[in-house]
Amino acid sequence: MPEFAARVIAWQKVHGRHDLPWQKTCDPYRVWLSEVMLQQTQVATVRAYFTRFVARFPDVNRLAAASQDEVLGLWSGLGYYSRARNLHLCAQTIVSEYHGEFPRQANLLQTLPGIGRSTAAAIASLCFAERVAILDANAKRVVARVLGFDADLALASNERALWDAATGLLPDPNVARTSMVGYTQGMMDLGAMVCLPKKPLCGACPVQRQCGAVAAGDPQRYPVRSRKLKRSSQSLWLLWLRRSDGAVWLRKRPPSGVWAGLYCMPMFDSEQLVRDALPTQFQKSLLIEPVFRHVLTHKDLHLHPCVVDLHDESHTSGEGRWVTAAQWPDLGLPAPIRRLLSVPGGV
Ligand code: SF4
Asked: Is 313 a catalytic residue?
């Protein structure tokens, strides 16, 4: 499909996005940060987080030198915290193994913590003009539809074939040095603005006449993936100890599992276990608030807040510390805990 890349590049120039805070640079640190933040989050939300993040950590050395609590605190409310933990680890690896300079090739970038094949390609093509294809969710949709690629992407072999097909659509090697930024950005913009998951705006698409999915009559059928994510659910009881000055008792979560490394009220698997953890004099004042649901990638959490307003302020609940309202915004708190505490920025 020879003119595909040229059409995408020409369309991006006129109709694409040009004012995102991470676009006016080819600094790999900023491009990497934006790519990681955008992996599971909308552009509108990422803008504010990105700006705050680069203000606090303007380069990879400053990020590497920060504590994990500081990084998670700044990430707080953005969700999918493994991204933040990997970001921190990746910065430390770049400083210790690459003298603070990002590798320039996608195949090297891909070996770093938290950088997958598509993110590596985005950094290498946008910052170093390497001729490599991205295949994030947006680009995957565009490529599968344009080519009418209807093989089941639940199979790794089909996923590999789609990567090969995406590579086949790249700009000609003779012009790649000057055109990769426009092409990669164009694929991102096309997927985000025109080739939408539901109701793609084919009438406004620069590649409509070449599009296999349009020719087949049902663009929304692509990409094809048979295996859906298996979901589970879990109920958890949160012991919400409140002091009269508003401070709450929080405990740092272990380094793996749900909300690893974040601060949370002590969690239990049943109401009885909460009661067992409380001295008898507090049993009467235990108030079980209505359960609410929080959706994680693979599971639904049913959270039961169990509130105890303390008058005996010396009481604590095992490992943890009292945290005042003034300290909450700077702490890495899971989104539902931010919501319970009414900390701004909870999602
Ligand atoms: Fe997507 Fe429609 Fe463009 Fe095909 S023509 S790439 S389905 S927006």
From this structure: no
